[in-house]
Design goal:
about 250 residues; mainly alpha; Serine Threonine Protein Phosphatase 5, Tetratricopeptide repeat; 2 domains; two-stranded antiparallel ribbon; 11 helices; 2 strands; about 65% helix; repeat; HcpB-like; Cytochrome c oxidase assembly factor 7 homolog
Length: about 250
């Protein structure tokens, strides 16, 4: 049946039928991809986060669908579809998602394990977190590559409280879990840039300008600066389009 999406009643019918189709594909045909779509439908269309959380959780644990593990991990982290967030429980879902080769889940697991700060009820484990981040970057997640670049740019201290980001001369004698390596930082930044991370492109430009981890090259510095600018402009345009979509004549 063809729907006229300019007619409100037909839009409502289309949306309801979509929900029926997703429920059939998930519960009767037991298709993980469709179960994930059902979760997205419950989240975005019905705004029923409790039911969406149950679908994502079941699809992660029962059908081993990595994208749903990432979703329920995020729900658990921020407290959506539950009373409050729980980073330690969220980590378990992210780790499962990473096991099922979902790069976003690997990224989140790695960031939680390498992070410190109030409200993070997780024992810091930089080597384990690094492996998750590396797996995510290897699967072409730009943020994971950018995050790894930052780790190598400054180094990762064993005791964060001893590290002074504003006075590098004060950090000479502290112990590092990952030592600063500008070449590694450049390589990860360049990959992140090639994958579309504008901040990484800006860093690559600066590293070419300074000769950090790579030979100085003003032409390459200018090239990557222009790439960073283009990505920023594209990002701003996308945000503007999203904001304006649905307005009359737009």
């Amino acid at each position: 049946m063809a729907y006229d999406l300019k007619q409100e009643d037909e839009v409502k019918e289309y949306i309801e039928n979509l929900g029926i189709e997703y429920r059939f594909g998930c519960y009767k045909e037991k298709k993980p991809e469709v179960c994930h779509l059902l979760g997205d439908y419950l989240e975005a269309i019905k705004k029923d986060f409790d039911k969406a959380a149950k679908v994502f959780k079941s699809n992660c644990l029962d059908y081993k669908f990595g994208k749903s593990c990432l979703k329920i991990g995020n729900y658990t982290l921020i407290g959506r579809g539950r009373e409050k967030g729980d980073a330690a429980e969220a980590l378990k879902y992210f780790e499962k998602g990473c096991e099922y080769n979902e790069p976003g889940a690997c990224l989140h697991a790695g960031m939680l394990l390498t992070a410190t700060g109030p409200g993070v009820n997780i024992t810091r484990d930089v080597p384990k977190g690094y492996n998750y981040l590396k797996k995510s970057c290897d699967q072409n997640d730009p943020m994971a590559c950018h995050y790894l670049s930052g780790m190598y740019l400054t180094g990762v201290p064993k005791n964060v409280a001893e590290f002074n980001p504003h006075r590098p001369d004060k950090n000479a004698n502290i112990e590092y879990l990952i030592k600063s390596d500008k070449t590694q930082a450049f390589n990860f930044a360049k990959k992140a840039c090639e994958l579309g991370n504008m901040y990484a492109c800006a860093n690559v430009s600066m590293m070419y300008k300074r000769g950090d981890g790579v030979e100085k090259n003003p032409d390459e510095s200018k090239k990557f600066f222009e790439i960073a600018q283009a990505l920023q402009k594209a990002h701003e345009t996308t945000k503007e389009i999203k904001f304006q979509q649905g307005l009359d004549g737009k």
